[in-house]
Specification:
- With 286 residues, this protein is α+β, with helices and mostly antiparallel strands.
- It folds into 2 domains: 13-23 and 135-280, Aminopeptidase (3-Layer(aba) Sandwich), CATH 3.40.630.30; 42-133.
- Helix content is 33%, strand content 24%.
- A hairpin with an 8-residue loop joins strand 2 (61-64) and strand 3.
- It is globular, with a radius of gyration of 18 Å.
């Protein structure tokens, strides 16, 4: 099955279509910009939830979900002058200490100053062990659906069902502690409901049981694939690839030209086979 069941157009997309500027610059610089902007858009969208505090200023994009899980609290898009960076880092770390949550600080290709990583380490932050390749592809180059060895049923699920099987499978796949996955899904659903046509969740089922998830974020003119995971017992059958391919087809049908994602080392080759190319590696510090 190459498409999500019964879906021709994404519900709610046309409501905001007139406001969408589709990115078309597929040069290396354009692809890097698309990757960065779509990932920033994920937290900008979450600001619609009353549970998340987002500061979207000229010097940084800072988000605090209040959930005690470092990936859900942090800093993106740093733009600081060398003479101010140390003071701002200290103030930002004090903010997250006041919020009593762990955090991460991302250093993207466009981050300033150029020695931001070294400055963060000087303040006690440590680089994460696993690096995250930032990848992108031209959707016009997306080929036929990849073959798989199982009969997978893919369904796009409404936001009021995100705290069910969707959240449980994602929690197991990404190692969310405690009830953090439920809180995260509530935040994402609030942002999606406030901005129709931006964020969609998908589940993959084998014999009626959910074994995989993925999400499509339409933000900043690009189609972002996020939160792709497959339960361990169902890996090795092409399910993760299928969960990536289905939303890519929908995004292409809606006119998007560029798709982006962040990959794990385990999934890197599968994404390359779909047509994604690695453009840079995210550095994250905790």
């Amino acid at each position: 099955m190459s498409r999500v069941q019964g879906v021709n157009n994404l519900d709610g997309y046309l409501e905001n279509a007139a406001q969408v500027t589709i990115l078309t610059d597929t040069s290396p610089a354009g692809m890097i910009a698309a990757i960065e902007a779509n990932i920033w858009g994920a937290w900008q969208t979450s600001a619609e939830s009353s549970e998340v505090e987002v500061y979207d200023g000229p010097e940084m994009l800072r988000y605090a979900s209040g959930i005690p899980f470092a990936p859900l609290n942090g800093v993106l898009r740093t733009r600081l002058e060398p003479e101010e960076v140390d003071d701002v880092i200290e103030a930002t770390l004090e903010y997250f200490e006041w919020r009593d949550v762990p955090m991460n600080w991302a250093v993207e290709p466009s981050a300033k100053p150029d020695d931001l990583g070294a400055r963060l380490m000087a303040k006690g932050l440590v680089p994460e062990d696993e690096e995250e390749p930032g990848m992108a592809m031209e959707l016009e180059a997306l080929g036929a659906a990849p073959g798989r060895t199982v009969n997978l049923e893919i369904e796009r699920v409404p936001t009021d069902e995100w705290q069910g099987d969707f959240a449980d499978v994602m929690a197991r796949g990404f190692g969310f502690p405690g009830s953090a996955h439920k809180d995260f899904m509530r935040i994402l659903a609030a942002g999606s409901d406030a901005r129709p046509g931006t964020l969609y969740g998908y589940v993959g089922r084998l014999d009626g049981r959910t074994v995989a998830t993925s999400m499509l974020l339409l933000a900043a003119g690009a189609a972002g694939i996020h939160n792709v995971t497959t339960l361990e017992h169902a890996r090795g059958y092409g399910i993760g690839t299928a969960m990536t391919y289905a939303p890519l087809i929908e995004a292409r049908d809606l006119g998007y030209k560029i798709a982006i994602l962040q990959s794990s080392e385990m999934a890197l080759n599968a994404y390359k086979r779909l047509g994604f190319r690695e453009y840079f590696t995210f550095q994250r510090f905790q």
